[in-house]
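Key result, reporting period 2: structure in, sequence out.
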């Protein structure tokens, strides 16, 4: 008796070609959900931007300020100059 006969007697599995296999992934076979396309559970908090910037002072932006800074902190700056 040769090795092939022994393997056949023991019920060794036959070779399976790739075309005989389903397109099911390892994760699906194991019952593990594929979460690669899902949104994260903890999305980054959204920063709410002020609706609009306060009016610019007559002299323009304070030295060194950008419009973005003015939009966020301009109202506070104006309040500090009133005092």
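The corresponding designed sequence is given below.
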């Amino acid at each position: 008796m040769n090795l092939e006969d022994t393997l056949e007697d023991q019920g060794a599995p036959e070779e399976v070609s790739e075309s005989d296999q389903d397109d099911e992934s390892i994760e699906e076979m194991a019952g593990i959900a594929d979460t690669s396309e899902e949104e994260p559970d903890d999305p980054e908090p959204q920063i709410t931007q002020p609706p609009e910037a306060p009016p610019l002072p007559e002299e323009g932006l304070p030295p060194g300020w950008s419009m973005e800074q003015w939009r966020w902190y301009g109202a506070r700056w104006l309040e500090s100059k009133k005092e």
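The mean pLDDT is 75. The radius of gyration is 34 Å. This case is discussed further under Risks and Mitigation.
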